[in-house]
Fold each of these.
Amino acid sequence: MMGQYRGFLLALRFDLFDNEFRLQLKGKRTHECSMGTSATGNFTRMDHLLTDISKKLSETQDKLQGIHMQIAAAQKELEKPFPEEQELKEKEARLIELNALLSTDAPNEEQIA
């Protein structure tokens, strides 16, 4: 840990893949941005990162509200009766009959050998 910035713990790591230093702002989660050679540029990057956090939070809350609305709509759909239920029961019963007929008509292994 290098210190704190706007209530977040500040850390630095080197990314071998991108060959650059990365600033990490750590709170409940870790948020990261690339580090440049300019001190003011680095502060600007951190400020943008923090601004993006509040935008992402707002977007995520909107998505969550949408999901809650979808769940409520799905629960209403579950309460509706299935309109083809009687037809389904009839066809399932017929399928059972046909399977029983096929299994009695099929030659067993002793007859084949």
Note: The longest strand covers residues 8-15.
Amino acid sequence: MSELTYKVTLSFNFLAESRTREGVTVPREGGYEGPLTDEQYEAISNDPIFNVEGEAPAVERTLTIKEKIAAAEAEGLILDVTGLKTHKEIDAAIEAARTPEEVVEPPVETE
């Protein structure tokens, strides 16, 4: 459920008392004001009978390989991505750079 509040009204040329889409009933008088799921927002905003006020929900996108490398370098990680071409390989390199290497110190001999 989106945290955004939307104001949904009916088009002036829609004469019925209300219209329901994806479980949201919008009355002619006053309209609907409240949250919408992404599915409700998509269905209502694509119906020309409705007028929707409010920001569209953000769409998550996958970072490009260059963006992933830049973000890792911004974290201070040192990467060797020579020859790596896939997202899976780049993700593994970033994870390896985040995981500190375990240093094994030789035992100290005492006399």
Note: The beta strands are 6-10, 18-21, 24-27, 32-34, 50-53.
